[in-house]
Queue: 3 jobs
Job 1
Amino acid sequence: MGGTVSTRHDIGREIAELKRRLYELECTTSAHEADEPLPLAGEIQAVVCRVEQTRVALPLDVVERAVPAAAMAPLPEAPPWVHGLLNLRGRALPVLDVAARIERRGRTLDLDDQIVICRHAEQRLGLVVQEVLGVSEFALGERTNGPGASLPIAPYVRATLRDAKGLVLLFSLSRLIATSDIPPLDEPPEAERAGHEETPGR
């Protein structure tokens, strides 16, 4: 009986921590809505991924690593594109599904999916993609017109780049993880928060 109560308490603390982190992401995203303009020339290194049938990229400096898809604790009241809580080396990270976020719908996690661990405004989170293709360098001077504004993916694209295989959509992480449509989240008590504080690191 005691073990069951303890387990429920631990799960409650983990959910409270995830809610706090989503709340912080909402605040930091609102404060950083405008992306800094990309230089007109030079190169950018980015991690190229496949989201459904589209090649997308995330700046290398915001990506920590990629991990296989894994079971997660659900987050009550979160939108359908938030899969829940991933326990990564004892650290609770919110995980968003990129394809589901773009289409604003739910999506079942596939065993072949991968989770890209990213850092945004001193917070860490996971992004579900279908495949991580590798790291590439792109010439910023060869940017082309982005996807049409009417396409669901358009609001999340910072720039359209090109490599030998064709076009790659460079995502804006701040736009992708905007959480303004998540219901208001209660912050955990100070005692619970102190028990989970940890300085993020690579």
Job 2
Amino acid sequence: MRIAVILGSVLGLAAVQELATRGAVCSVAVPSTEHPEPDELAAQLLGAGWPVVRLGRPGLGNALLAWLDACQPDVVLVFTFPWRVPARLLVAGPRLGFLNFHFAALPGYRRPEPIFWQIRHGEAAGAVTVHRMEAAFDTGPVLLAQAVPIAAHDTHGLHRARLAVAAAGVARQLLAAWQGETAPLVEIPQNPALARYWPRAGLADVCLRWAEPAQALERLVRAANPWNRGAITTLRGQLLRVLGATALAQLPKPLQAPPGTVVLATGPEGLVVACGQNSGLRLDIVGLDEGYFTGGQLAALGLQAGEQLPEYLSAPIASAS
């Protein structure tokens, strides 16, 4: 079995290593983008003695064709590749085609950054889904799907790490099926009626909106940690990042206040902000230009109950000049 791999992030590294230990990887290609992760990944692979082919967006079709001619794989496994593979190669490529590892359930979470949205929505599980690649993104029939639980305190980074580990197991299952050790894979078409496309999270998506219930805001904080360094709000005209928080389902009546109001600020008890539905969000870890602090430390520095944390998009931010 000869497997070629297009590896765009560390999400697929454990899977590639798993296949390589079984002698199945014939070549690895890494895209050249403006982001540092592929370059770091290529350097890591080269340092481990793996030859790496770099792929750029200009001339991608010809570069892929030359690569396939050189390594003659049975299948190409694709992990977080940022560009479309030309349709002619999807049709006339290796005998088992191009298979994409999508790090979410399909068809409900299509597009490149589903992890944020799954945590934001409170899904109980994400998934590693292997599907046949088609001209459109994330639409092909599914060969394998493995659910990956999203624990109550999982951040984006923690769930991402769990997905990477799960992908190695999925790759092992693929290889076992291809080698006749398990039942043949059955391709299951996706139901287009259930398809949802989710964009990359933008600025508005990572802002704390205090009218929401605290439980929803706690999920947002986890969904934005670490890639955005947390969810954002403001404090005294300065950007405040919230990297860790705990939802309090119901504030006692003496602490109930308009959303965005600091209702508790003490060293021992921490920092609690009023949210929608009379709930509260305890800010456990926060970030300012001066550093990272616990909520209790921020209270000890002078933040007081009764102060407001204006939402970022509606508040003027102090200039550094």
Job 3
Amino acid sequence: MALGSNLGDREATLRAAVALLDKRLGALAVSPVYETVPVGGPPQDDYLNAVLLTRPASARELLEAAREAEQAAERVRSVRWGPRTLDVDVIACGPMVSDDPEILVPHPRAHLRAFVCVPWLDVAPDAAIPGHGLVADLVTGLVAAGETAGLRRTAVDLGEGLTLG
């Protein structure tokens, strides 16, 4: 799952989301946090982004947990790709592929997003996106294309207080 926040207390929002998702799904790993420039949408503040790996769950369970976390953060959906207190996306669900309009798996733009692939690589070096290949290879391509220029790794540790694994 990919998490991002660019409104309010971004760090506190991500911490609360990780705690909720850990309680609901069980966290296996949480990436370092990256500060990233927004991709698309109107002018807005930078995001804090991270990736959370959870225990195996169905795509539907992941989506419900993501929506619960967004609701807890009082997310408002008013502008596509606009600023938000919290965005939680289901990026992949193992090798599963789904074209259900309510939950596309893998996420249709994950392989293009450095703010997803770079933190994911930090916690899962062997990860792959079905239909797109290894995340490590995707990151290599994103670096070569200059897509990682807007990423800055922070010292924020979202794993504090979690029993991972």
